[in-house]
């Protein structure tokens, strides 16, 4: 039996850092915008209980790959004797602040829960996902969402449709290094989010809440990120996502985003993605379960 599922990217449309907790983690408020662009995972049941991950282009040992770690965590939690071979087609730049590794882990939890018939709920899978990374729960939950805490308290929202141009400077930002830096701003005031549950956030709301507390520090540490954002800023309001390295801007249509992408300096990597409110991984799984009559 086999299964193919997408692992979408996310953008942080805003990111506020409220303070540092005694365990060293930071209290955040953010808006995770899911995209229709990402990696692809192929799952195949093995005849034994082994796990194997084929991930060309991913620069980590097999057992450190978040796909492998997610599969192992689910296998141990469910106590299943089934194994799997997983092929990861990587499109998302690693360490880009677009959640590639976290999304791969979330899609692995969702895919293997289905294939192995573990029967865990989305909430149970999201809790497991937290052990793998702060950004995993939102991808498991599968909805564009406001988030508080370290990303685990989610308030699902909808955003008006738009297209994002994402540029990926050729550098890798360590999330741990940014959060450990003494120069990081950590004192933003909290805003009230709970009343926004299931609301549509229009472009005025998004404009007035835009901003990323990591941006000044990251741009100081990585001048190439600042140069990329300043270039994009000539065309539309441009911002850092997560702890970087990617920067993005929103456009009303795909053709406007495409026009700017085509003007980028030679050698710069980038892509265009549409905003989505439901994760393409969930859409694909829902289709599977409806066609298999379950
Ligand atoms: C801040 C965000 C916003 O999306 O940045 P990006 O990773 O997307 O750039 C994420 O929540 C990151 O999530 P993720 O990349 O999964 O982080 P983790 O692996 O859990 O944590 C990496 C390290 O960053 C620090 N960390 C992370 C999240 C947080 N709220 N406070 C922290 O201090 C911790 O030192 C931790 O050891
Ligand atoms: N499947 C994977 N894809 C990408 N990176 C992975 C994966 N598994 C483990 N990693 C490690 O996680 C780090 C962060 O990856 P990623 O999630 O892409 O970044 P970010 O959190 O900035 O969006 C990578 O630099 C890499 O060392």
From TrEMBL:
Upper lineage is: Bacteria, Pseudomonadati, Pseudomonadota, Gammaproteobacteria, Cellvibrionales
- Enzyme Commission number, as recorded: 2.7.1.148
According to UniProt, this protein's pathway is: Isoprenoid biosynthesis; isopentenyl diphosphate biosynthesis via DXP pathway; isopentenyl diphosphate from 1-deoxy-D-xylulose 5-phosphate: step 3/6
State the function annotated in the UniProt record.
Catalyzes the phosphorylation of the position 2 hydroxy group of 4-diphosphocytidyl-2C-methyl-D-erythritol.
Check the record and name the Pfam families matching this protein: GHMP_kinases_C, GHMP_kinases_N
| Enzyme kind, highest EC tier | transferase
Q: Return the protein name.
A: 4-diphosphocytidyl-2-C-methyl-D-erythritol kinase
User: Can you provide one Gene Ontology molecular function annotated for this UniProt record?
Assistant: kinase activity
Enumerate the UniProt keywords alphabetically.
ATP-binding, Isoprene biosynthesis, Kinase, Nucleotide-binding, Transferase
Quickly give the catalysed reaction.
4-CDP-2-C-methyl-D-erythritol + ATP = 4-CDP-2-C-methyl-D-erythritol 2-phosphate + ADP + H(+)
Instruction: Answer whether the UniProt record assigns the keyword Transferase to this protein.
Output: yes
Please report the stretch or stretches of sequence annotated as the GHMP kinase N-terminal domain: 65-142
The entry's ATP-binding residues are: 93-103
Entry keyword Nucleotide-binding: yes
Query: Which positions fall inside the GHMP kinase C-terminal domain?
Result: 206-267
Q: Name the family the entry cites.
A: Belongs to the GHMP kinase family. IspE subfamily.
């Amino acid at each position: 039996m086999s299964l193919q599922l997408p692992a979408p990217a996310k953008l942080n449309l805003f990111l506020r850092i409220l303070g540092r907790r005694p365990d060293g983690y930071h209290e955040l408020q953010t808006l995770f915008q899911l995209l229709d662009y990402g990696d692809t995972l192929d799952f195949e049941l093995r005849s034994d209980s082994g796990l194997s991950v084929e991930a060309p282009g991913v620069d980590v040992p097999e057992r450190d790959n978040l796909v492998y770690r997610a599969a192992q965590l689910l296998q141990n939690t469910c106590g299943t004797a089934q194994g799997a071979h997983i092929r990861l087609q990587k499109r998302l730049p690693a360490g880009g602040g677009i959640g590639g590794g976290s999304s791969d882990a979330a899609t692995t939890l969702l895919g293997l829960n289905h294939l192995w018939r573990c029967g865990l709920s989305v909430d149970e899978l999201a809790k497991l996902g937290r052990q793998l990374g702060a950004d995993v729960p939102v991808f498991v939950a599968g909805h564009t969402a406001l988030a508080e805490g370290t990303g685990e308290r989610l308030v699902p929202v909808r955003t008006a449709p738009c297209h994002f141009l994402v540029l990926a400077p050729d550098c890798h930002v360590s999330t741990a290094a940014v959060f450990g830096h003494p120069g990081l701003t950590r004192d933003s005031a909290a805003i009230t989010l709970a009343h926004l549950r299931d609301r549509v956030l229009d472009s005025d709301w998004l404009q007035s809440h835009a901003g990323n507390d990591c941006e000044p520090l990251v741009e100081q540490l990585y001048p190439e990120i600042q140069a990329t954002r300043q270039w994009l800023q000539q065309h539309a309001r441009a911002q850092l996502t997560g702890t970087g390295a990617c920067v993005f801007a929103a456009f009303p249509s795909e053709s406007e985003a495409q026009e700017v992408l085509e003007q980028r300096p030679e050698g710069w990597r980038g892509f265009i993605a549409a905003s989505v409110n439901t994760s393409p991984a969930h859409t694909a799984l829902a289709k599977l379960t409806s066609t298999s009559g379950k």
